[in-house]
């Protein structure tokens, strides 16, 4: 589904991503771990189009996407979430979710006068789909609440709902377990498993080892901008190179 070849992203003299190559098979949940500053977020941002690659290639479903702007990559079916969700605080949960599909007829000023039935029909369908998605993530009863009033964990669920509205094939999840209580973490893991069973592929950055061990296979390990190793979670966890990379990060 995704092929990354010898990818480099430099910031000034710093190679945050330093020649990374890997392939994501369709219908897998791949974990991406590594100590702080290893280059995980930069790798995500470069794949999702937030940063232009300094060099190397990125292909999604056989199409080269390296250097395309984020909205083009998003509409091709590759979406990312953020470690700290960014909903529109002054809009309700339902409105935040309905906003996602692009090219809605109501976005064109004149359509609201001359194509009102089309605008209304599209809005109705969008509302219905948003309600289904909110029901799936368990936020239906909060759909009238302002996004700013949600807890951190609920905001993560809202972000997942917003991403699902785009009907993605590949989701890059940035620390879905960060700042989430243990009960909600179980809920999030269940939802991810269910989405995976429905055919969505995931690449997940996560520091929570429970989530990695329970959900991800294979696991990629980054350290100092490079891919250190790749393998099943139990192998990665016991590999001395991985331990050393983490201890190096802690002691550095
Ligand atoms: N926009 C930027 N400009 C300059 N340097 C950056 C930028 N973004 C990241 N870096 C640097 O690139 C390196 C990799 O950072 P990155 O955030 O990708 O690591 P990470 O593995 O996601 O870390 P963490 O687990 O702490 O989130 C760090 O040294 C960081 O300071």
TrEMBL record:
Domain of life: Bacteria
InterPro entries (alphabetical): AAA+_ATPase, ABC_AA/LPS_Transport, ABC_transporter-like_ATP-bd, ABC_transporter-like_CS, BCA_ABC_TP_C, P-loop_NTPase
MF term (GO), any: ATP hydrolysis activity
Keyword Transport: yes
Record's protein name: ABC transporter ATP-binding protein
PROSITE patterns linked to this entry: ABC_TRANSPORTER_1 (PS00211), ABC_TRANSPORTER_2 (PS50893)
CC terms in the record's Gene Ontology section: plasma membrane
UniProt entry keywords in alphabetical sequence: ATP-binding, Cell membrane, Membrane, Nucleotide-binding, Transport
ABC transporter domain ranges (all copies): 2-249
Pfam families named in the record: ABC_tran, BCA_ABC_TP_C
Record-linked PANTHER family: CONSERVED COMPONENT OF ABC TRANSPORTER FOR NATURAL AMINO ACIDS, CONSERVED COMPONENT OF ABC TRANSPORTER FOR NATURAL AMINO ACIDS-RELATED
Organism: Rhodoferax sediminis
């Amino acid at each position: 589904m995704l092929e990354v070849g010898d990818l480099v992203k430099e910031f000034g003299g710093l190679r945050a991503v330093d020649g990374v190559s890997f392939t994501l098979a369709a219908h897998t949940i791949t974990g991406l771990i590594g100590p702080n500053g290893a280059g995980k977020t930069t790798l995500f941002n470069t794949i999702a189009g937030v940063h232009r690659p300094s060099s190397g290639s990125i292909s999604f479903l056989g199409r080269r996407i390296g250097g395309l702007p984020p909205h083009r990559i998003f509409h091709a079916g590759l979406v990312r979430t953020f470690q700290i969700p960014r909903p529109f605080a002054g809009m309700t949960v339902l409105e935040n979710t309905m906003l996602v599909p692009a090219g809605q007829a109501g976005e064109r000023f004149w359509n609201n006068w001359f194509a009102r039935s089309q605008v209304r029909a599209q809005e109705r369908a969008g509302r219905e789909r948003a309600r289904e998605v909110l029901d799936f993530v368990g936020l239906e009863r909060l759909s009238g609440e302002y996004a700013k009033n949600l807890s951190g964990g609920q905001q993560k669920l809202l972000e997942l709902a917003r991403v699902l509205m785009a009907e993605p094939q590949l989701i890059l999840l940035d620390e879905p377990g960060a700042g989430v209580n243990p009960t909600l973490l179980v809920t999030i893991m269940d939802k991810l498993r269910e989405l995976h069973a429905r055919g969505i592929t995931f690449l997940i950055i996560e520091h929570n080892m429970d989530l990695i061990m329970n959900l991800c296979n294979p696991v990629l390990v980054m350290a100092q901008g490079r891919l250190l190793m790749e393998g099943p979670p139990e192998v990665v966890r016991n590999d001395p190179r991985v331990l050393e990379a983490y201890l190096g990060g802690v002691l550095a």
